[in-house]
Design brief:
16% of the residues lie in helices and 33% in strands. The chain is built from four helices and five strands; from the N terminus they run H-E-H-H-H-E-E-E-E. 20% of the residues are buried. The protein has one domain: Hotdog Thioesterase (Thiol Ester Dehydrase, Chain A, Roll), CATH 3.10.129.10.
Length: 166
């Protein structure tokens, strides 16, 4: 039985837009840097950041891709509040298989960043455990208040059926 159903094929090309709710903020930048155990002063010290050529403190690069500041809903049953395609594949597990980031410019604390996700493709491939698995490719584009691209996140998800012989 194929994992790639007509219902899933119809989802390819869908977009979801998450508008900026507020500026990124110094606190978010500081907390993320602490969580990443990154003590680079460009993330915390305005004078240092200005001396380094920035208008203000900047965010660690992946913060723009990992923040859920654009989300305006309750967490799901697993406590996740970020973007999810809610793909209708039963009795399976979802594996985050990788991200490919690109950054156009540093994000400032004053930047309001919106995200637009596009479901680009789904391909069914053989699994080394037997059966098949579904590779899902999507891209998130992060833009500032002027609509200028600041970052891109290409994400690969793998959906594996549970209970496959192996």
């Amino acid at each position: 039985m194929s994992l790639l159903t007509d219902e899933l094929r119809a989802m390819i090309g869908q977009q979801v837009h998450y508008p900026a709710r507020e500026p990124m903020g110094r606190a978010s930048i500081r907390y993320f840097a602490i969580a990443m155990d990154d003590d680079n002063p460009v993330y915390r010290d305005e004078a240092y950041a200005r001396a380094a050529g920035h208008a203000d403190v900047i965010a660690p690069p992946t913060l723009v891709c990992e923040t859920c500041q654009t989300a305006d809903r309750q967490p799901d049953a697993d406590g996740y509040i970020g973007h999810d395609w809610h793909l209708p594949v039963g009795n399976s597990r979802l594996i985050r298989a990788g991200n490919d980031y690109s950054f156009e410019r540093p994000v400032l604390a004053s930047d309001s960043i919106s995200a637009t996700w596009t479901l680009e493709s789904m391909v069914e491939k053989p699994s080394s455990r037997g059966g098949t698995q579904l590779f899902v490719q999507s891209v998130a584009r992060y833009t500032d208040a002027e609509g200028k691209l600041v970052a891109t996140n290409r994400e690969t998800l793998v959906i594996q059926p549970l209970g496959t012989a192996g």
